[in-house]
Structure formats: C-alpha cells, structure tokens
Fold this sequence. Notes:
By secondary structure, this protein is of the alpha+beta class. The chain has a single domain (about 5-260), classed as Uridine Diphospho-n-acetylenolpyruvylglucosamine Reductase, domain 3 (2-Layer Sandwich). Helix content is about 30%, strand content about 25%. It is built from 10 helices and 12 strands. The strands form 3 sheets. A 5-stranded antiparallel sheet has the order 4-5-8-6-7. It has a 4-stranded antiparallel sheet with strand order 9-10-11-12. Strand 4 and strand 5 (about 65-70) form a beta hairpin. The chain is globular, with a radius of gyration of 18 Å. About 45% of the residues are buried. Flavin-adenine dinucleotide binds near residues 28, 91 and 155.
Amino acid sequence: MASEVLMPSSPSEAVSLFGDGAATTVIGGGTVVMPEITYGRLAPDRVLLLTNAGLDTVAVDGDTITIGATTRVDALAELGIDGLTACAGNVADGEIRSQATVGGNLCVGQGHEAPRGDLQGALLALDATVRSTGSDGERTESLETFLPHRHARLVLEVNFTRPAASAFAALEYPHTHEYTVLAVSGTRTADGTIRLAATGVAGPGARLRSAESAASDPEAAGAAAVNDVTFADDSLASAWYREQTLPVLVRRVLAQLEEST
Ligand SMILES: Cc1cc2nc3c(=O)[nH]c(=O)nc-3n(C[C@H](O)[C@H](O)[C@H](O)COP(=O)(O)OP(=O)(O)OC[C@H]3O[C@@H](n4cnc5c(N)ncnc54)[C@H](O)[C@@H]3O)c2cc1C
C-alpha cells in the first residue's frame, strides 16, 4: 500500500488534506484503484481514502439535487430519474455498484481494454455541475468543462435539476465482462430542450450537440451524432462498429423521450 494513507473524517478535512492534489491518489470506492495497487500497476506514495469523509450525502430540494462524491452508484436509483437509474444500473454488476462512487465514476480514466465512466453521459445529459477543489482552490463548473482536467481535482459534489423526462440506451453485447461498450443518455427539460450525451466513445463522455440540434427528426439526429464524437477500437468493439451503432442508440433515446411526453 502507500507510505502515507490519509483518512479524512469530514469534507473540510478532505479538502485540506488533498491540498493542491500533488502526488495524491484519491480512493472513492476503490473498484479501479485497489486492483491497480494489488497488481502492482500503481504504487502511490500518498493516498486519500474518502470512505469516512462525509461526502456521501444526497440532498433533494424541490427539483434541485445535490449528490456527494462518495454516493454509491447503486444509490442513484432512489432518485427516480429514469435515464440516470438505467445508466447506473448498467454499470458493472451489483457488487461493484454497491462499492463504486459517483466521484470515482466521473474521474476514472479510460480502461486498458474497455470504456469506463458511464455516469459521465447521464450527468452530461442532466447538465450537471461539479464542485471540486484543487491547486486553485474550490470551484463549481459544468461537468463538460470539468471532465478534461478531472485528474487534477478532488470532486466534492455534483448538482443538477430534475428533468421533465430522461432516457438511456446502451449497446447490449455478450462477453463484455459487465462493461458498457457504447451508451447514449438524453433528457428533456420542462421548456422542451433536449440534451444528449454519449459514453464509450474516444475520451470521456461527450455532448452530442449536432444530434441535439436535429432532435425533432430522429433519423437526422442519429446521422448527425457521429460528427460530434470520435471513436476508438478496444477489445470490446471496433471504432467502425461503434460508429454504426451510435445513430441507433440516439434514435432509441429520442423515442423514449417522445414516449414520456
Ligand atoms: C468487472 C468490472 C466492470 C466494470 N464495469 C464498468 C461499467 O460498466 N461502467 C463503468 O463506468 N465502469 C465500470 N467499471 C469501472 C469502475 O468500477 C467504475 O467506473 C466505478 O464507478 C469507479 O468508481 P470508484 O469509486 O470505485 O473509483 P476508484 O477506484 O475509487 O477511483 C477511480 C478513479 O477516480 C479517482 N477518484 C475517485 N474518487 C474521486 C473524487 N472524489 N475526486 C477525484 N478523483 C476521484 C481515483 O483517484 C481514480 O483515478 C468496472 C470495473 C470492473 C472491475
């Protein structure tokens, strides 16, 4: 294990111990970090273990929802947001979902052989903001702005507004070892705005802006979506197969949103 293991007992202590984050490995649920340490692929000097940091609260104030960083993935179903429930329920298996955290899922890097970070898509579609701390102190920003520099920050909480409708569709594929190959999340707000995002594409989860612009025509939206992202090969699927499948998932999500009108 690491030479220094820090175990904060409050959010403020976690912020203070994280400091500028230099040479610090954060552990949320540890479903990614602990195997890396066990198999010797990661040898951190300084570990910040968030288990007892008090970052696991979920606050619902009217339609405003605030989720602490160490909220477990399986707890998201309790919020009753269809798209988020389906996305969270598609992460790994029950054992991992009861251990894995929202902060860990947002900050996880690309896997060696499979995509990770499914919640990025559902939370991008929900227009979530992230409160985090790092070398320049605390700040709150959109998840989309946060994702590119997530590895240098400590996530404290995620905030979003309950949508009028939400949906999720994933490529169901045998032998994926519980990983999600490709997925699309969508929401519709009370004023009719559609937001779409994908995971399982190259890099972190990404908004599908061209598809959103064409959302009134699902065929056109599906076709446009492939211009919003780039695709990568991995051991689960080829970039080519993902490119063929993304339009189908966009159409399914738009159909689900239409049905919930
Ligand atoms: C068999 C198997 C199947 C899996 N299937 C899926 C899947 O379908 N979809 C999917 O998305 N993932 C999958 N995963 C990967 C992983 O379990 C999830 O991504 C999980 O949500 C990671 O959360 P965690 O809390 O366990 O992360 P951890 O292992 O604790 O951390 C992951 C990364 O995030 C950082 N981190 C953790 N918390 C914070 C924080 N609060 N602030 C800043 N950085 C933080 C860590 O330093 C590390 O870099 C799978 C894993 C396994 C073993």
